[in-house]
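Researcher: I've got a protein sequence and the SMILES for pyridoxal-5'-phosphate. Could you write out the 3D structure of the bound complex as structure tokens? I'd like something to compare against our soaking experiments later this week.
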Amino acid sequence: MEKIPVTIPYFDEKEAENVKKVLESGWVAQGPVVASFEKAISAHEQIGYGVAATSCTTALHLAMAASGMTAGMDALAPAFTFVATTNAIVQTGATPVLVDICQETFNIDPRQIEAVIDRDYQERDGRWYNQKTGNLLWGIVPVHEFGLCCDILEVNRIANRYHLQVIEDAACALGAKIGDTHQGGFGNTSCISFHPRKSITTGEGGMVLTDDAALAKRMKELRTHGSTVSADARHAGKGFLLPEHNEAGYNYRMTDIQAAVGMAQVDKLDDIIREKRRRAARYDRMIADTLPEFVTPYVPEGYFHTYQSYVCLLNLNALHLDSIKAGGEYRNRLLQKLEDVGIATRQGTHAIHLLGYYKNRFQYIPEDFPNAYACDHLSITLPLYVQMSDADQEYVVQTIRKTIDQG
Ligand SMILES: Cc1ncc(COP(=O)(O)O)c(C=O)c1O
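Model: Sure. Here is the predicted complex with pyridoxal-5'-phosphate in place.
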């Protein structure tokens, strides 16, 4: 039986060579290779500064904490995203407030942002406060889901109008663009992930990107226990006293071992994205020809999708199903049958309001965010990776066709 994973990272001998050099150097914690990796990623995205972290989750928390998000504040976030987006907000002590998405793009719906603010907040001295809790509306954490930028220009316009900050969750979107501008280049801080399901990987890892030199400096201190001196600078210098700590920071340091992998990966990034886009276009054509039960990913004019994941939606009409619940049950049966014949697929991502912690804390019901609910139940991620062959792709699409026909 063929085995097709949902994704696999793309390595050659360069990653191991780089790691060997770091091991031989004797310095394996955060040091010069992390600094080089920060420069390489920020240069690729055409942003001033990169601040590496242990994951995108910690990068998000670091960026939020350094930007002043804290208890007594609200942050708006899409209702359909990986749970790390809202967990990071919770970790600052602030309250995540969900906003529904557009089903076409899987991204936050700017019209819904304004609707939520107009419905739940009132203005006082130019700032907006939650009418029920009194919380200050701090800002928005939009997500560039699956490698497609959200409508960040519209999000920025709303943020200006209501005096809000924006931190972009670009975990999946390294290399994504609108026109010639990369994610993170629209005037906000953004955070990316190097988890193995992303375009390039460091095992685990993340990075904050910003053009704000002062913010970058503050985040570098906060990620190393609030220390005023980095660990490698301290070891390189003379003296025996520990540095000053003016803040209670974190240990969110990426290691040079991870960054060594990252340095080899970043050289492959453009090729990986090019190949994934080529395979995605091939899926688009194959699905249009043979699978009317699937809706392929939508890409707005001028957007550059990197296809971190290739995510389709089930077409309920084509399947003669009359509810999202029935669609979800059908989707799960289909994905199980594919798994039984060696094809790994996944639900796109989850609706936050259906997850235990959030459902219980905020007493949500599925209908609170109908688009997120639909995408939670009807989304399907198909296998996509550089090493995939034409035959693998045909096997995936033909097996889905056969499985649907068999009922
Ligand atoms: C939208 C989004 N945000 C945040 C994360 C968290 O990234 P990490 O695993 O690097 O912490 C992910 C990971 O899948 C994600 O998809």
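Model: The chain has a mean pLDDT of 97. The pocket of pyridoxal-5'-phosphate is lined by residues 55-57, 81-82, 84-85, 143, 169, 171-172, 193, 195, 206 (CB under 6 Å).
Researcher: Great, I'll pass this along to the crystallography team.
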